[in-house]
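quick one before i forget lol
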Amino acid sequence: MASLDAQQLKASGFARLVSWTGRSGRTYGLIGENLEHFAMTPSDLYLIAKGSHPLWVGSSADLVGDPLSRSRFRLALDCADRVFRLLTPGAESDHLRTIWDLEGAEPMQALSAA
């Protein structure tokens, strides 16, 4: 997983790092954001979820350029209980592949001592 720096964490409070596994099996580092006050930045990719179910994955550019994505985003915000920012958005050429992978993602289960 990528190392964290101050800019990536954008400390406006406590940032929580979680890992989700995509459809492909790839692991993604995500930072929990405050759903009530989050603001999208142009270069970041976001995952909006209810529990462990992704409702919408995309960026601000997707909202501007794709009416269907914009509609799904609005619906997701109506019933979501959490939002995450992808720690390392990756190359622009991988944008759609990453969205597809995260739309079927699941949170990784934390290891627990028995």
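fyi Confidence is low (pLDDT under 50) at residues 1-12.
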